[in-house]
Specification:
The structure is a single chain. The chain has twelve helices and 20 strands. The chain is of the alpha/beta class. Strand 16 and strand 17 form a beta hairpin. The structure holds guanosine-5'-diphosphate and magnesium ion. The site of guanosine-5'-diphosphate has 22 residues, from helix 1 and strand 3.
């Protein structure tokens, strides 16, 4: 059974929280794209954890976790993340963590390059997390990347690195005017943070193919959401990787296998970190209240997230791009303070109503059409059955289901593992 857990919106929908919940009976959880620009917050009986690189199944002792070839991995960050988890009592060994030999290493010069470019852009910046993600994916496709498997062959790695660094300095030093990257520093960094990781590196595609052939249960965990997908999202304000479910078998190293199930994680309202068009965006006090109610500050960066009402146009598109079979609606409890619930039901541009999610300049010019649904105005965080929800909350869930054209099977009403309703 191959199940993907993916984001319907701009990210931060609560994927980590749902993977932590739904991985109870899984054998394996795989992260298949992205890097440490992810921030997945998991609250369970073991405590509160923020995961950037590690799959959210790492908190379940019975689950094997895989970091797939579609990922970009900052070794220094990984070492610190492992350390933090171990301090929190989580046991991690090559038995429950496997890292693809084809995953790409995010090096300190990628982080440097990311910052240099954002600074150069000034007010026109992309809103990068400055963690080197765009430069390292760029290098992957330019075929100048260093991969995890290279760590197993240090001599060949040094030889290759020499050429790559010569090339990289053309940009870092000659174009941006920053200090030259020093080979010995890069080697020292790779030794310091790469050596402790070596024992986890293997052919994870083969491992997963064998597991799938044995009918073991594999869950694929996405980072970010459909609207940040490099192809389908709000380019160029996207991430640099494929966040959609269809990429999961590729980013996991089993491109010949098909997903059995796609569960889309959809938030009861909208949030967006960084730059780019965000049609449903609210401002002023209304926004501040929602941001506070939802604790909308980035897990990876601490940045205040932009907020808005639920966006029907964007979410319907997200459902379609993910090919979602069913949805988990998260953070419904956050809306409990509202007398009426704002919903962006369509967009408008030059007096014309838009129902299909537009791209590019059309999207940038789109204005939201807001309607209001009745609120419920009471605490729902203790509800565990759909019928326990106030009528207005039930109506809201049913409305969203209809609006995006996909059944909602889980409703999350709190950050804790058991704070959910099965519909
Ligand atoms: P991810 O990136 O999709 O994994 O989501 P994040 O972890 O970045 O953001 C979701 C945040 O909402 C986290 O702080 C979660 O602990 C929290 N959360 C998840 N589900 C719920 C929910 O149903 N209600 C509330 N109040 N918080 C939730
Ligand atoms: Mg997040």
């Amino acid at each position: 059974m191959l199940t993907a857990i993916v984001g319907i919106n701009w990210g931060d929908e609560g994927k980590g929280r749902m993977v932590d919940l739904l991985s109870e009976n899984e054998d394996i959880v795989v992260r298949y794209q992205g890097g440490n620009n992810a921030g997945h917050t998991v609250v369970n009986p073991r405590g509160k954890f923020i995961l950037n690189l590690l799959p959210s199944g790492i908190l379940r002792p019975n689950v094997v976790n895989v970091m797939g070839n579609g990922m970009v991995i900052d070794l220094e960050h990984l070492c610190h993340e492992l350390e933090r988890l171990r301090e929190g009592g989580v046991a991690i060994t090559p038995d429950n963590l496997k890292i693809s030999d084809k995953a790409v290493i995010c090096l300190p010069y990628h982080v440097l390059q990311d910052g240099l470019e954002e600074d150069r852009l000034g007010d026109a910046k992309y809103g990068s997390t400055r963690r080197g993600i765009a430069p390292v994916y760029g290098d992957k496709y330019l075929k100048k990347a260093i991969r995890m498997g290279d760590l197993l062959y240090p001599d060949q790695l040094e030889h290759r690195l020499e050429h790559v660094i010569d090339w990289k300095n053309l940009m870092i030093h000659k174009a941006y005017g920053a200090q030259e990257i020093q080979m010995d520093q890069v080697i020292a960094w790779l030794r310091k943070f790469g050596d402790p990781i070596r024992e986890y590196i293997c052919d994870t595609g083969r491992y997963l193919a064998e597991a799938a052939d044995e009918d073991r249960r594999i869950m694929f965990e996405a980072q970010l959401g459909a609207l940040r997908d490099i192809d389908m999202g709000i380019y160029p304000y996207t991430s640099s990787s494929s966040t959609i479910a269809a990429y999961a078998p590729i980013g996991a190293g089993i491109p010949g296998y098909q997903l059995d199930q796609v569960i889309g994680i959809m938030k009861a309202y909208s949030t967006c970190v960084g730059e780019g068009p965000f049609t449903a965006e609210m401002s002023g006090e209304e926004a501040e209240e929602l941001r506070k109610a939802g604790g909308e500050y980035g897990a990876a960066t601490g940045r205040p997230r932009r907020v808005g009402g639920f966006d029907v146009v964007a979410s319907r598109y997200g459902v379609e791009m993910q090919g979602a079979d069913e949805l988990a609606l998260t953070k419904l409890d956050v809306l409990s303070y509202l007398d009426q619930i704002p919903v962006c039901v369509a967009y408008e541009r030059n007096g014309e109503r838009i129902d299909r999610f537009p791209v590019g300049y059309e999207l940038e010019q789109a204005k939201p059409i807001y309607e209001y649904l009745p609120g419920w105005n009471c605490d729902i965080s203790g509800c565990r059955e759909f019928i326990e929800l106030p009528k207005a909350a039930q109506d809201y869930v049913n409305y969203l289901e209809q609006a995006v054209g996909c059944p909602i099977t889980y409703i999350s009403v709190g950050a804790q593992r058991d704070a959910y309703i099965m519909k």
